[in-house]
Amino acid sequence: MVFVERDRTHQEMIAGLKRFATLEDLYRSEFYRRNKARLRALLEMTALYPASDVPPRERRFIRAVAWNIEKGKNFEGILDCLQTHPLLREADLVLLNEVDWGMNRSGNRHIARDLGQALGLHAAFAPAFLELTKGINDERDRPGENTVSLQGNAILSRFPFRRLRVIALPQLFEPFEAEEKRWGRRSALVAEVTLADATALT
Predict the structure, then answer these.
(1) What is the tally of helices (H) and strands (E) in the chain?
(2) DSSP secondary structure letter of residue 73
(3) Number of CB atoms found within 10 A of residue 157's CB
(4) How far apart are CA 55 and CA 77, in angstroms?
């Protein structure tokens, strides 16, 4: 699935979902019947941003790190850590969750793509939620509006991606009816990357 920021259909999906107070109301609606396939396809979407000439730091092993970046609101601080921390700067794979794309609270950045470009790494992103508010607490009061309104998972890699897929995970509560109203589900982004002489799964 491909879409452009502020794409009319995408914005219509957001406006339509906002009309319903509960999932029960949504699932019984004509809106959901008409748009069910499109909404489900959104959660299966993967976005890939290749880089060029990205040599591994150390060929004897792979260093992978995982980080919940809390939406990427402190983009410059995250970037600085990935560039200067003695371990993070040597990582071959950086697994990120709570990654925004087009959320006002994080400057409407495409966090995964922008980090990949700044670091010279391959980047991949998959949405977990379509955000129906600007967030929680002071995020709601920040001037401006969301553009793409997605939050999900991302991988930064020194190795080219061969294949990407999304796996749905169990969910402990329903965010559609929470303060930070969202439509979607918990998920994992799984990638196959190409090594010099083999393929690794992350």
Answers:
(1) 5, 9
(2) T
(3) 27
(4) 24
Q: What does the alpha-carbon distance between residue 191 and residue 13 come to, in Å, rounded to a whole number? A: 28
Bridge partners (DSSP) of residue 141 are: none
Per-residue model confidence as pLDDT tens digits over 9-23? 788 999 999 999 999
The pairs formed by 70-74 with CB atoms below 8 angstroms and a separation of 24 or more are 70/98, 71/98, 71/99, 71/100, 71/103, 71/105, 71/106, 71/111, 71/135, 71/151, 72/98, 72/99, 72/100, 72/106, 72/109, 72/111, 72/115, 73/100, 73/105, 73/106
| Rounded Cα distance, 135 and 180, in Å | 5
Beta bridge partners of 186: none
What gap in Å lies between CA 46 and CA 167, rounded to an integer? 12
Q: Which two tokens stand for residue 80?
A: 């600085």
Report field, pTM of the whole predicted structure over 0.85: yes
* SS3 state at 164: strand
Q: List, for residues 62-117, the tens digit of each pLDDT value.
A: 899 999 999 999 999 999 999 999 989 999 999 999 999 999 999 999 999 999 99
Cα gap 49→110, rounded to integer Å: 11
Name the token pair of 36. 């069910």
